[in-house]
């Protein structure tokens, strides 16, 4: 649904008034009219359902960037239009249509859910609307389906798991198992884990899966002792991750558990002691010691009233990327070539460390190795530096 | 005795049916000759309706067989038996209440007489079926009520409609389950006249509680008690049968 | 007056209203925005799904909760047979989608029609979910995330509808409108035929139909397959229109939604599902604008319809007419 | 080697399914209504356990609360909604209960939000018992097995040994019976619906620590319960018991040993049963 926070609404009224004033005093050229109009930034994110908090954190971070720049990117007023995509893939294309065709947004920032992302992708590829992905990790978006107007500032599912596999291999692990939900994100992570481990001389000897989003892990866990592996890698997220980590501990399995960072991201509280010592890899973590991160976390807490997380960072960087593009073309969205060129070349000083873009317009960043200790995902090192998704099959 | 009645059109051999552990039909062997009006009587719970259901195919027997004109139809489902010429009416009026009387009967005619190729023709153009239906309605004495909605007909007329529906399928055998149920005197007379007329060209198996009526119209009678055949014969023979008097008639009167 | 077909308008006024609806739909794209044009296309596709289900529910008295599966399956067929980054002509995709949906309906129907009542509901639901899981849990169609078609252009005999970008939504719009109209006319003719009379008989009293000699199972199965194929045509159009497939298209909620459209529009007419689908889409769009709690609105509307308006919107019109004409109208 | 663990999993899963399916089959059989919102009742139980564990820290309270709350919820639903739908068409029942699903989900979202929550295992059972080399089985799962068996036994005694049980058995076999018993009918209806609801709610409460609580948790269980009822036969509680165990085993062993086809296994099983016995393995009538 389209709803605005009170702040944006009043700002919008002001802008309207300003535009009317301009129109009354002079007869502007077409370009000037476009400049006078605010730039519509559509936020198509989950504001209800399981992923609501992710959507809210991303939104807070984007609003932070807008506030930092006094409401203007490249000289253009920014007008935010929000739409709750409910994380319902079947509504994805229609909701994206609402943004692009009904509300005529200039930029679409969205979304969290990979299935919904595909729907957005379909619509923006046809309309040519600039789209920045603040979370969804579906690899296709920057691989075979990539488009010149679609950029991703979050991660690809492949990246964190690749980092984890690589780190295990370097440590000398020869045989590992992979366990996940049987859906695209699980499979894409699994591919990353396998590649990373194989690169360092190890091998994935078994892949165990269960239906998404089922939580009946017992039939899978019971198989692990018989596999003879030195490590178990996993990809689960949210409540599934809570349940899995707890059951893994309860089953008394001796093989160490590790995984893509989402296994312990934002869920360490409910996982409690069961998560202690679980190693994961992700592009963010607790204790990244740089000035940018410290400032960001403080500002986020002041605005949102809670600690920043990886999703907030992704939202923050998405908006930063938009700033870079718009400043390069001075707010003129018509200059597509200039806009995309500047965005592709962007070097961002992110709370997560240095960030740039790959040729397939996917984010390039460090993948950190973390260990769950006392309720925090403590960064213990870098699993893969400046890691880019292979971007297989992308021809931008 | 069988020879005297000619060859059987409908015949059961050692028909049995039980529900759970309870036998509702025990070893029933009856014969129904062409042109015969054969009444089955018995006290409540004697298994009369079960027998009709076994004959029409609504129930499958536990053992035993049903033959129609020498052919074993035991395994045939209800609708296939209709096509072989067994039609039935129901004890509790069972019609399409929201349709016209004509449409009720036309549907019955359609079941047996429509060719598969005509299925997708407009129903209003199927003149042959309509005229068959009108004939059956007329035979049952309802020719002037054909446009009435069936549910609005009087009880008696609805019973007549039941019979018209069975007639429209051009049956050889009619199984009539208490056609007089709930009827007034006058309506009853109409139906009994109709049955007599029908028995000229159909074999009729009749279940009826009204003893005066049964003894008046039946050519042959079978007495069921507790699912088994107690006696059979002409009405006169049955009337004088001591076992029947003891078990049934005596108890009734 | 004698032989009225139950699901069709009973008066000249009814037919006139239908014609007016058609005229509105023909003219609509010239008066509304691109966005709303596409929205109406979506509504018409939903109307096709509801209409195909009406053949079972209103026509034959079979309440299926697995009907959405044939719709979604057909959409997936379009995805699976479309080569990457190219379009297949509609005279290939449409029959293929309908054929596969029909075969699935044959399989599901032949088993589930062995049961009645609640069992039929549960079995159709379970088989529908089975088809859902096939696409949800395997890589066949992109798994849980779904997949999208490279180029879902409506194309026939080498000539594709190559409209300028602004007018591109008009292609699917009119193709959907034509299909919807054809489906209505086809079903109207079907209900008027001898076959339709059998369905009406089964709906009214299946037991009696068997007793007068109809092999009702065969007719129900035929109807189930026809309805499945028509649902397939609807799903095909969805794929063409949105160019995107997702397992949610198959889930039983889709069937429940279609049932709701039927109930909303009116159980007793073929036009009901169409009116219901348009109303339901409008309701969704409206509740999206006014509240975050869309499910609440939906749930309350369903409750209201079930409790207060059991004959639906078209039933409302009919009731008024009956009141004007007196008890015999 | 791991077979024992897998059999335990199958048993525990099957017994939980039985609690849900037995309520469904009773309500179908005796009241003649289809309740799609039965899964939502399970969800209510799961969230009830979550709330109780969170506020009081004493999860065991969820059992008596589930029983009492379930009975009250069921009686209320019967009295104010379902009672008016016994003689309505299936379509109306389907949509009424579908609307209930939406309202339950919205209510849950309104009261408790949409997050996934894990529910801690009660401290008393928070230990594991080794059942295979390198693999332990949570004591709580044994507790769940015990609870389900106890409830099943109570249900069995109620249906087999009491007067109302006799009425219920008769009604499930011959629905006309319900009208014949007259004055008692209303009470029987309400009691059956309340018990069915309570069983689903308790099942949800028991399941919460095992599966966590999340939006739509009831949906998956609802569909599987349908399969259980279809295979078990309408209105047959003992049928539901054996069929639930069968499904639990087939599903669990399938997942463990043939993961590629496990998702379809129970549906294939259902298709096979329908082919051979359309009225279910233990059913009286179609």
Strand-helix topology:
The complex is a heterotetramer of chains A (396), B (253), C (329) and D (286).
Chain A: H1 6-25, H2 30-36, E1 39-45, H3 52-68, E2 72-73, E3 76-84, H4 92-102, E4 107-109, H5 114-127, E5 130-133, E6 150-152, H6 158-170, E7 175-181, H7 184-199, E8 203-210, H8 218-221, E9 231-235, H9 238-250, E10 257-260, H10 268-271, E11 279-282, H11 291-304, H12 310-328, H13 336-344, E12 347-350, E13 353-357, E14 363-373, E15 376-387
Parallel strand pairs in A: 1-3, 1-4, 4-5, 5-6, 7-8, 7-9, 9-10, 10-11
Antiparallel strand pairs in A: 2-3, 11-14, 12-13, 13-14, 14-15
Chain C: H1 12-27, H2 34-60, H3 67-81, H4 90-112, H5 117-137, E1 147-148, E2 155-156, E3 159-160, H6 170-192, H7 194-211, H8 216-242, E4 244-245, H9 252-265, H10 271-290, H11 294-308, H12 312-325
Antiparallel strand pairs in C: 1-4, 2-3
Chain D: H1 3-31, H2 38-55, H3 62-80, H4 90-112, E1 128-132, E2 135-138, H5 139-161, H6 163-173, H7 176-180, H8 185-211, H9 217-232, H10 237-257, H11 259-276
Antiparallel strand pairs in D: 1-2
Helix pairs in contact in D: 1-5, 1-6, 1-8, 1-9, 1-10, 2-3, 2-4, 2-8, 2-9, 3-8, 5-6, 5-8, 9-10, 9-11, 10-11
Task: Please tell me about this protein's structure.
The complex is a heterotetramer of chains A (396), B (253), C (329) and D (286). With 396 residues, chain A is α/β, with parallel strands linked by helices. In chain A, 41% of the residues lie in helices and 22% in strands. Chain A folds into two domains: 11-155 and 289-357, Response regulator (Rossmann fold), CATH 3.40.50.2300; 158-282 and 369-387, 3-Layer(aba) Sandwich (Rossmann fold), CATH 3.40.50.2300. In chain A, β4, α5 (114-127) and β5 (130-133) form a beta-alpha-beta unit. Mean pLDDT of chain A is 88; it is low at 1-28. Chain B is α/β, with parallel strands linked by helices. Chain B folds into two domains: 1-85 and 172-253, Rossmann fold (3-Layer(aba) Sandwich); 99-170, no CATH class. In chain B, 37% of the residues lie in helices and 23% in strands. Chain B is built from nine helices and eleven strands. Chain B has helices at 48-56, 78-84, 101-113, 127-139, 155-168, 185-198, 211-217, 235-240, 242-252; strands at 10-19, 22-28, 31-32, 37-41, 63-68, 71-72, 86-89, 173-177, 203-207, 220-225, 228-233. In chain B, strands 7-8-9-4-10-11 form a six-stranded mixed sheet, with helices on both faces. In chain B, strands 1, 2, 3, 5 and 6 form a five-stranded antiparallel sheet that branches. In chain B, α3 packs across α4 (127-139), α3 runs parallel beside α5 and α4 (127-139) crosses α5 (155-168). Chain C is 71% helix and 2% strand. Chain C contains twelve helices and four strands. Chain C has helices at 12-27, 34-60, 67-81, 90-112, 117-137, 170-192, 194-211, 216-242, 252-265, 271-290, 294-308, 312-325; strands at 147-148, 155-156, 159-160, 244-245. Chain C is globular. Chain D has 286 residues and is mainly α. A two-stranded antiparallel sheet of chain D has the order 1-2. In chain D, α2 (38-55) packs across α9 and α3 packs across α8. Chain D is globular, with a radius of gyration of 19 Å. The model of chain D has no long low-confidence stretch (mean pLDDT 86). At the A-C interface, α4, α5 and α7 of A face α2, α5 and β1 of C.
